[in-house]
Specification:
about 160 residues; alpha+beta; Pnp Oxidase, Chain A; seven-stranded antiparallel β-sheet; 4 helices; 7 strands; about 25% strand; disordered C terminus
Length: about 160
Amino acid sequence: MYQGGRPNRLASLLNRWWAWLAAAGLWPGRLAALEVRGRRSGRLTSFPVAIADHGGERYLVAMLGEGTNWVANLRATRGQAVLRHGRREAVWLEPVEPAARAPILRRYLQIAPGARPHVPVDRRAPLADFDAIAARYPVYRIRPGREEGTSPARSR
């Protein structure tokens, strides 16, 4: 359904459906809709995402890797986005360095079964296996943000 890293028609339809369910808060809390401005169109686009928790923080992982559309849009907005799960949460998504991604990627595969076919490591594999692929899968730490048009909160 994701030939060449892009969703086919069926995957696009399913993504819209999952994003709607997540935004409405009709699915478990780990599933949310990520809203990001399109880098070319400027229109708000919505993507279903699974939120991975690790070490008391929340993270988003691009299961299709660097070429993921929401990652390109996010970079164009300098990390500014909105998560929706029954309510709107303005967020700033902070990139995580590849050296710190392995435990987050493993946790992500534990909570997001739909991502498993797209990541070439078993969810029970040792962290060294995740280190080997970490640079190919962008990971973002979820930070509190502000509504569009203002600077993101960069608390540490």
